[in-house]
Sequence to fold (208 residues):
Amino acid sequence: MEFLLDVLTGRYALDDLIRWGGYTILTVIVFTETGLLIGCFLPGDSLLITAGLVAAAGALNIWWINALLIPAAVIGDSVGYAIGARLGPRVFTRPKSLLFDPRHVERTRDFYARHGAKTIVIARFVPIIRTFAPVVAGVGQMEYRRFLLYNVIGGVGWVTSMTWAGFFLGQTIPGIQERIHIVVGVVIVLSVVPILIAIIRERRRQRS
Fold:
């Protein structure tokens, strides 16, 4: 546990975490980020890219990574949906805490209002929104069969695109394992861009 905290605080790199925890830590983090309200701070995109890079170096098997993480992502979203369906509107009135910010739910609800059911797929590639989209779908009583379809499409697309992108980078660019921090930094920046765009649009809409 202490090692995990050291990674999250930047003392160690994500690849150290993955080599330390292997398939188990990958599965737990993917499930937690997508399935539990407290998971929005976890490094989903960068974790998957790094897992692919580690697999390219031979420390893990890329096929096992996908076989474990796709179900973890799908089950995680289903748990998030169940939380939303069970708690209903109370989700929107939960007090702010260290691990929960009601503004994230509100932004997700606005995102959902603009994009509809396909939010479940799009949100997989947007940090924070990824955590709360299934919850909002549950609160809105979206038909579960329809939700599950988008959930599976999004989960498969997210896990495979990120892990295989890292794997092919590791296979084609010599020495990239020594520059994992640069790759992770780029992924984090690209992941934050959609959030910044959404915030800017929201502020412009409020001013108009």
User: Anything to note?
Assistant: The two ends are 48 Å apart (CA to CA). DSSP finds nine helices and no strands in the chain. Residues 1-12 have pLDDT under 50 and may be disordered.
